[in-house]
């Protein structure tokens, strides 16, 4: 690695651009921008010894490395948010709406609607073939990429099966209230 390539301003320019996009699109704090940029620059500098001018230009290499690191940082942030553990509610406050841990209001003003929807969902899931039933249950707890990794298949295959699941629910009349009121889309 030559010093003039290692500190090429193009690396900082690309890292700054990708960090700005990441902060803007992911809802991260502006304060995270410098850390994100620094991680992308560091990753690029670590990978510079693998640059091969016969395979492409230096700028294309830098763009690719920084784009990939940006995607990796986005993925890590999504997983961190997805896995964030909610604080445990002490037992003495579980049903005490006036305590420091208020019980949230139900999603619907009529709890019987939610109960009926839950029963309908369970009814539809029970009628599904084994693989679709397993997929439906996995979708309640994992993302599509996580399921694809678990099952050893492509995300595209999972998305196709998810479309079949939606179709089964719509055929059974089980859909979000917004779709019922506004018409199925």
Q: In angstroms, what is the radius of gyration?
A: 24 Å
Main β-sheet, in a few words?
none
Fraction in helix: 55-70%
Structural class of the helices, strands and pairings?
mainly alpha
Count of folded domains: 2
Let me know the number of strands: 0
Q: How many angstroms separate the termini? A: 55 Å
Shape: elongated
List segments where confidence is low: pLDDT < 50 over at least 5 consecutive residues. Answer: 91-112
Mean pLDDT: 75
Q: What proportion strand?
A: under 5%
What is the H/E string? HHHHHHHHH
DSSP helical segment count: 9
Please identify the oligomeric state: single chain
Description:
The chain has 185 residues and is mainly alpha-helical. It folds into two domains: 3-83, no CATH class; 111-175, Orthogonal Bundle (Arc Repressor Mutant, subunit A), CATH 1.10.10. It has helices at 3-6, 9-26, 33-47, 58-83, 111-127, 130-139, 144-151, 155-171, 177-182.
What is the topology?
Blueprint: H1 3-6, H2 9-26, H3 33-47, H4 58-83, H5 111-127, H6 130-139, H7 144-151, H8 155-171, H9 177-182
Helix pairs in contact: 2-3, 2-4, 3-4, 7-8
């Amino acid at each position: 690695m030559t010093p003039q390539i290692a500190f090429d301003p193009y690396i900082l320019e690309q890292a700054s651009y990708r960090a700005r996009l990441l902060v803007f699109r992911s809802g991260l704090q502006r304060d995270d921008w410098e850390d994100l940029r620094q991680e992308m620059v560091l990753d690029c500098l670590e990978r510079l010894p693998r640059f091969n001018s016969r395979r492409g230009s230096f700028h294309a290499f830098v763009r690719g490395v920084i784009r990939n690191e940006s995607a990796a940082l986005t993925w890590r942030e999504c997983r961190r948010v997805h896995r964030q553990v909610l604080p445990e509610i002490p037992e003495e406050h579980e049903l005490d709406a006036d305590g420091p841990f208020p019980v949230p209001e139900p999603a619907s003003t009529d709890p019987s609607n939610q109960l009926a929807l839950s029963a309908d969902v369970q009814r539809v899931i029970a009628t599904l073939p084994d693989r679709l039933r397993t997929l439906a249950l996995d979708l309640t707890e994992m993302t599509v990429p996580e399921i694809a990794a678990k099952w050893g298949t492509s995300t595209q295959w999972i998305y196709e099966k998810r479309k079949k699941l939606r179709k089964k629910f719509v055929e059974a009349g089980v859909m979000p209230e917004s779709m019922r009121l506004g018409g199925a889309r």
